[in-house]
Structure formats: C-alpha cells, structure tokens
Amino acid sequence: MPIFDLFFLALGGLLLWFGADRLVEGASALARRVGISELVIGLTIVALGTSLPEFLVSFTAAVTGYSSISVANVVGSNIFNLGLILGGVAMLRPVMPERDIMRRDAPILVCCTTFILVCASVTGSLPRWAGAVLTLTFAGYIAWLIIKSRMEFAAVNASLQTVLSSRTGSTLNSPVLPGEPDRTTAELPLWRALGGIAAGLIALTLGSRLVVNGATAIAAWLGVSEWLIGLTIVAGGTSLPELVTCVVASFKGRNEMMLGNLIGSDLFNFAGVLGITALLRPLSVDASALPNLALSVFTVLLILLLLRLRGRLGKAEGLLLLTFGLGRWVLDAFSTPPL
Questions:
Q1: What is the total count of domains within the chain?
Q2: Is there a domain that residue 180 lies in?
Q3: Residue 199 domain flag
Q4: Dihedral of the alpha carbons of 55, 289, 68, 286, in degrees to the nearest 10
Q5: For residue range 249-261, what is the model confidence (pLDDT) as tens digits?
Q6: What region does 257 belong to: left with phi over 0, alpha with psi -120 to 50, or beta?
Q7: SS3 category, 287
Q8: The domain spanning residue 74 has which CATH number?
C-alpha cells in the first residue's frame, strides 16, 4: 500500500479538522466584533468560504465548455449537504433551528431552486438574464441579512445597556449575542478573528485536496474503478469543508452557525455559483438534471415539514434524511453509465 498516500490522507484529515475549528472560532469572534449574529455569519462568510470548491469546479467546467458538469456538481453538492451532512449531524446531536431559518432562509432557497428548475425546463439552459436575476437576488439577500442583523444586534445591546445601567450604574464592555454557549471568543481581537477565518479556509481547502488525492490513489491501488472513485470520493470531496465544519460547529454548540453554513452554502451554490457562472457564460442544462433539481426542492420542503411537525431534527429525522441522500447517490450510480 502506498505509504505516502496514507500519510497525505491522514494529514488532510488533520488539516480539515484544524481548519474547521479555526473557521468556527474565528467566525464566532467576528460575529461579536461586527455586531451580527452567528446565524448570519454562517449564512455568509462560513457558507461562502466552504463553498469555494464547488464554485471553482463549476466555474472551471463552465468556461471550458462542460456546463452540464457545472450544473451537476452544484445540484449534487446541495443534495449531499442537506441529505447526508444534515442527516448525519442530526443523528449525532439534535438540530434545533432558529425561527428565521424556517421563515426566511429556507423559503428563499426553495424559490431560487424552483426558478432554476422552471427556467431550465422551459429554455433548456440558464441564460445570462437568469444569471443576472440569481446574482442580484443573492447579493440583495446578503446585504439585507447584514443590515437587518446589525439593527437587531444594536437594539438588543441598547436594551441590555439600559437595564444594566439602571441597576448597577455600569455598562457592558463588549457586545452580547443572545443564546451563545460561551463568551471566550469575544475576547479575540479583530485581526485574530480574521486571521482564524483565513487560516481555517486555507486549511480546509488544502485538507480536502489532500484527502481526495490520497483516497483516490489508495482506491486505484486497491483496484477500484475510476467510475466508482469519481462517484464517491471526488463527488463528496467538494463537500468535505461543509461536512467537517458542520460537525465541529455542532459539537461546539454553534447550532446557528452549522445550519447557516448548510443553508447558506446551498443558496450560494444555486444563486451565487450558477448565477455568476451563467452571467459570464450561459449554461446549457441537460434534461437529466431536471429530476435532481426537483429533488433539491423536495429535500428542502421535506426538512421544513419535519421541523414543522417535530420542532427539531433528531435521530429519526436524521436517519430519514441520511437514507434519502444515500438512496439518491445509489440511484445515480445505477442510472448513469460509466464513461
């Protein structure tokens, strides 16, 4: 067995864990420093950072003339995120979402996915005007999130300042985000928070590349077919940053950031990645992608239904999502012939 490949696989795993830890801690500290919630940080900085592999793969595929790969990568990654990652995390620890996830963020994801599905069904492509609509929608959504969160954050801290001042005559020295599990990251200076985020993203990128390359080499050495390697290791490789970041965030009690990362990543993939790519170069959408686009809409609706009925995602709901995601993966393996 190739020793160096095993070493790179192990090193990649360590880098993934280290990167996720630094990203979560840095993002949490940044949320306090700039006065926005961890949910918004998860929906923006963390989601965009962990979605960089999907963006690079999709953009490169599109500009080199393989637009079907671009669309397939995004759709497959989104179903992987909500089925396998969210389902797996829910089986480890219960997931209890913020109200904004159900009322604001998930419905926007459904609308963007439905828009792409309808556009692709009618025109067989994502033209530039559709890319412009998606890009502007995503940019407006991010701007609105930040502005709204800062206003709410300022209002909460003003109320706390008033109460504390009236009772003790003192004031708060640092901002407070309601519902956070601890305040240790609040003491980090801004440069360390930003440095932690940057170091985390770099480590996640390098770690995912090392894991994919090492696992691919070992699988090939064991005689596994290129088709199976591509379907499993390479397909799941671009979602490794989201997977490890969500697991770390969940065990650190950063539920808002974990959910924000998943929903934000999927929204960025559809509205940001496909939107920007289609704006630069119109994308043709193969008819075989339409069922999976519809499946993406169904997955989000299923999660919303489970949350509405149970108020959280526990082991049973996690197992359902995990089975759903794995089932889709197996169906793809048998329905799509190897090249």
A1: 1
A2: no
A3: yes
A4: -150
A5: 888 887 777 888 8
A6: alpha
A7: coil
A8: 1.20.1420.30
